[in-house]
Specification:
mainly alpha
Length: 280
């Protein structure tokens, strides 16, 4: 009887989750197998085109590369930042957490616009570099893959740091003291104890960062428009094209993107489970 009351209390949430999460996913999957123009029957021609046409193959490849690279770099920087914050502790850590919470919400179009103001063709840093004769700043490649990578890394670092700080808090001081008593230094502690303990959290954070990057659309579109081929941009242009709209093909691209995200999360969780099992 009590379980039925809990189920009844959770019914509004279940209804909303079904309407705004489950139903759109199912609709997208079904539409991806429909013929062009919404005709009857099922077809695989959209998926064949996704994996054979160079434009969409390059979009998948570029999305994978930029997502994996930005996630790895963001994770490395966040590891150093989270470690430093937890070791310092006190008011410094609280201030650092406040800044992270503020910066982590700065993404999308405002982030791209800020980078354009700083590093664009008439940006503040670009003009300063020209006046000082600093060629690397005067010709900063913002409107290329390197500029896009920089913006991705910018919003990856705060998110990764926020996710890693609770994991660093779980490392006990007694473990470090035990390593010191046995003659080990700080490097040995992190190689033998710290990183193995944090490995499941590191893998989970990498998976979150990868999914966060591969699904990002607003920043990339505001910065490069359609000049660089990544999956979110190719998906969006199928639904809002000025001349031709291909919702069935766009649905197939969306399903491929969802499969990539699910596979990446599944792989990292499997590896994290294996490492956790070995430690136990």
């Amino acid at each position: 009887m009590q379980s039925k009351r809990y189920l009844l209390a959770g019914f509004p949430f279940i209804l909303l989750a079904g309407m705004f999460e489950v139903l759109p996913v199912l609709t997208t999957i079904i539409k991806s197998f429909r013929p062009e123009g919404g005709g009857f029957g099922l077809t695989l021609e959209h998926y064949v085109a996704v994996f054979t046409k160079p434009l969409y193959v390059s979009a998948i490849r570029n999305s994978l590369l930029i997502s994996a690279a930005s996630a790895a770099i963001g994770l490395l920087v966040a590891f150093a930042a989270g470690r430093a914050a937890c070791e310092r502790g006190g008011s410094v850590k609280k201030l650092f957490m406040s800044i992270l919470n503020m910066v982590s919400n700065f993404s999308g179009v405002p982030l791209a616009f800020s980078f354009i103001i700083l590093f664009g063709n008439a940006g503040v840093v670009t003009i300063l570099g020209r006046s000082l004769g600093i060629q690397s700043l005067a010709e900063f490649p913002l409107y290329t893959i390197w500029g896009l990578m920089l913006t991705y890394i910018y919003f990856q670092i705060p998110l990764a740091t926020l996710l890693l700080i609770p994991a660093f808090d779980s490392i006990r001081r007694e473990w470090r003291e035990a390593v010191n008593i046995m003659g080990g230094n700080d490097r040995i502690f992190w190689r033998k104890v710290g990183i193995p303990v944090l490995l499941p959290s590191l893998l989970g954070t990498f998976s979150t960062l990868f999914a966060n990057a591969i699904s990002a659309y607003a920043t990339a579109y505001a910065l490069l428009m359609n000049n660089y081929s990544i999956l979110p941009i190719r998906i969006a242009e199928q639904f809002k094209g000025d001349i031709v709209q291909r919702p069935e093909f766009g649905s197939a691209l969306a399903v491929v993107l969802m499969l990539i995200m699910v596979c990446s999360m599944g792989i990292t969780q499997r590896v994290a489970g294996m490492t956790g099992g070995k430690k136990a």
